[in-house]
TrEMBL record:
It is found in: Cell membrane. Belongs to the two pore domain potassium channel (TC 1.A.1.8) family. SUPFAM superfamilies: Voltage-gated potassium channels. It is a multi-pass membrane protein. Keywords: Cell membrane, Ion channel, Ion transport, Membrane, Metal-binding, Potassium, Potassium channel, Potassium transport, Transmembrane, Transmembrane helix, Transport, Voltage-gated channel. This is KCNKC protein. PANTHER family: POTASSIUM CHANNEL SUBFAMILY K MEMBER 12, POTASSIUM CHANNEL, SUBFAMILY K. InterPro entries: 2pore_dom_K_chnl, 2pore_dom_K_chnl_THIK, K_chnl_dom.
Length: 409
């Protein structure tokens, strides 16, 4: 048992790799479950529709005395016309300036409805270059929006938290907050709960979707469920294209409707993007909890023996210094000969014990000071971390601004 635990510790599968593999397995299972459900729901309807279409096709060929190959050739021409944007009913021009602006908006936001696509070689080549920089800039805009919406929510929730403390008598009535919020430094004293932020963003997303659905129901003539479906597909940038707004040739108050459609899509995409990132943090916490449950528990005798050995050689300053990886500048100074000595664990000098106690006291004082000032408890302890240790992009924003995402939780 001890050998198996030792091999497990030496394995290259660390916590990050384990979380990645666990998430990949869960996503594969989630995709399989979704495919099973959708196949069970939609496959009978698809088979029935195909049967009805074949019956209609044969009846039309028999009634009007048209051969099936000729009829199928005509239908292929009709499908090609539909792909080019030609419809029986009058529709708005696809490539006038408003239509082209709608198209590039769906490109850079990665919605990609598919109802308009470039047909020329020059247009397709330009789309590759245009989308490369446009999508990158839009993702940056989404991240900046996420940072500011989290900062705004943190400011509001902090004000509510301070008011609650005043009412309970835990905060002096004449207490005043510092200057206005300008960055991460203003949030170090108190951080909002990731669950509260997720709840607020969820409520805002639902409210926004309901209002947009009411507008689409009234203007486009869709039923409310279809409008909600369109809002989710669009705001989440899935963009199937089976329902697309603002495609008729004319609307009542057309300019106002196009402006409202643009604002709803912009705010909806930004809000759902922020909500997805908060939910991803919650999923990461669940993965961490699952990984902790999978930790090595197969050898209690080995754990007892190792704990007994640690109790026998409880004071090992050299091992303690190596374990905490403490730098002289960050965590205090101690004697150079004590730093260079290597102890066997059997004989301990008073000088080494004093140096170890000084270092431990410096760490304790530093942690107490950081806790009192609201800084993260694990800041600057592990000096081996590089600049990407806290994550990049939206994940780093959430780690810096929300309470439950710290490593100590």
């Amino acid at each position: 048992a001890a050998g198996s635990c030792r091999r497990r510790r030496l394995a290259p599968l660390n916590e990050d790799n384990g979380r990645f593999l666990l998430l990949a397995a869960l996503i594969a299972a989630y995709l399989s479950a979704g495919a099973t459900v959708f196949s069970a729901l939609e496959s009978p309807s698809e088979a029935a529709a195909q049967l009805r279409w074949n019956r209609t096709l044969h009846n039309f060929s028999r009634i009007f005395n048209i051969s099936l190959p000729e009829l199928r050739a005509f239908l292929r021409s009709y499908e090609a016309a539909m792909a080019a944007g030609i419809r029986v009913d009058a529709l708005r021009p696809r490539w006038d300036f408003p239509g082209a602006f709608y198209f590039v908006g769906t490109v850079v936001s990665t919605i990609g409805f598919g109802m308009t696509t470039p047909a020329t070689v020059a247009g397709k080549v330009f789309l590759i270059v245009y989308g490369l920089f446009g999508c990158a800039g839009t993702i940056l805009f989404f991240n900046l929006f996420l940072e500011r919406i989290i900062s705004l929510l943190a400011f509001i929730m902090k004000a509510c938290h301070e008011r609650q403390l005043r009412r309970s008598g835990l905060l002096p009535p004449n207490f005043r907050r510092g200057p206005a919020m300008s960055g991460v430094g203003s949030l170090v004293g108190w951080k909002p709960s990731v669950y509260h932020v997720m709840l607020i963003l969820g409520i805002f997303a639902i409210t926004l979707s309901c209002c947009a659905s009411a507008m689409y129901t009234a203007v486009e003539g869709w039923n409310y469920i279809d409008s909600l479906y369109y809002c989710f597909v669009t705001f989440s940038t899935i963009g199937f294209g089976d329902l697309v707004s603002s495609q008729n040739a004319a609307y009542q108050n057309q300019g106002l409707y196009r402006f409202g459609n643009f604002i709803f899509i912009l705010m909806g995409v930004c809000c759902i993007y922020s909500l997805f990132n908060v939910i991803s943090i919650v999923i990461k916490q669940v993965l961490n909890w699952v990984l902790k449950k999978f930790e090595c528990r197969c050898c209690p005798k080995c754990h007892k023996s190792s704990a007994h050995l640690r109790r026998r050689n409880a004071i090992t300053p050299g091992a303690r210094l190596r374990r905490h990886n403490i730098s002289v500048d960050a965590d205090g100074q101690y004697d150079s000969d004590t730093e260079g000595r290597r102890l066997s664990g059997e004989m301990i000098s008073m000088r080494e014990l004093t140096a170890s106690n000084k270092v431990s006291l410096a760490i304790l004082q530093k942690q107490l000071s950081e806790t009192a000032n609201g800084y993260p408890r694990n800041v600057c302890i592990n000096t081996r971390q590089n600049g990407f240790s806290a994550g990049v992009g939206a994940l780093a924003i959430m780690n810096n601004r929300l309470a439950e995402t710290s490593d100590s939780r």
